[in-house]
Amino acid sequence: MTDGTDLPAWAAILTALFVVAGAGLTLIGSLGLLRLGSFYQRLHAPTLGTTLGTGGILIGSMIFFSALGTRPVLHEILIAVFVTVTTPVTFILLVRATRQRGTDLPPPSPPEKNTKDLAH
Amino acid sequence: MSATILVWALVVAQTFLAIAMGCAAFRLLIGPRAQDRILGLDTLYVNAMLLLLTFGIRTGSTLYFEIALVIALLGFVATVALAKFLMRGEVIE
Predict the structure, then answer these.
(1) In angstroms, what separates the C-alpha of B3 from chain A's closest C-alpha?
(2) Count of domains in chain B?
């Protein structure tokens, strides 16, 4: 299944450590997205996954493929740079759209009230 | 021994990421307003990308890395387009 049989022990342990830490931080961020109260609070939670979670898993992947190929494999930096640059841009746009849409109120009036208003 | 540690760590990490994807999908379904759903979709994209990276470590092939890069690009474009739609009511003006 995996080519980890001919991997040195230090590389396997480091990869395991980084990958589990990154996945755990991503899980914490997603749980925060599920449980926090308002939209502006929820906006902070997934950034834990996009920064530390992505960084941990990418560092684990870099260590694994470098030890497997006995040469430095650095193309994971591409994903890290891209995610780090794009996440603030998307969240700034999202917050701007939310501010323009108004306060964090429940959705507008249900349809049966509208039909009653139309009937009057 | 080292292979066993790595396989178990990857199983644990994939379980964590699958639960995280479930949380994001739940927020995508129940989100009270549209921006909550967009936030859930963005988190779902990032979690799927990380899950593909762990698949790549597990199989030892670099093919998954390119799929993860494409998912990151498409997720950014989709979230920006949706936020722009919420802001203006149209994507391209």
Answers:
(1) 5
(2) 1
Amino acid (1-letter code) at residue B85 = F
Domain-embedded: residue B93: no
CATH number of the domain encompassing residue B15: 1.10.287
| Close Cβ partners of A17 (under 8 Å, ≥ 6 residues apart) | A60, B9
User: Residue B82 is part of which domain span?
Assistant: 2-88
One digit per residue, the tens of pLDDT, for chain A of length 120 reads 455 567 888 888 999 999 999 999 999 999 999 888 888 888 899 998 899 999 999 999 999 988 888 788 888 888 899 999 999 999 999 998 888 887 655 555 555 555 555 544
Candidates A5, A6, A57: best to mutate against B (most CBs of B within 10 A) is: A57
| Residue with token string 């739940």 | B26
Q: How many residues does chain B have?
A: 93
Q: Is B56 inside any structural domain?
A: yes
Cα–Cα dist B89/B54, whole Å: 38
The distance of B69 to chain A (nearest Cα, Å) reads 6
Q: How far is Cα B28 from Cα B10, in angstroms, rounded to an integer? A: 26
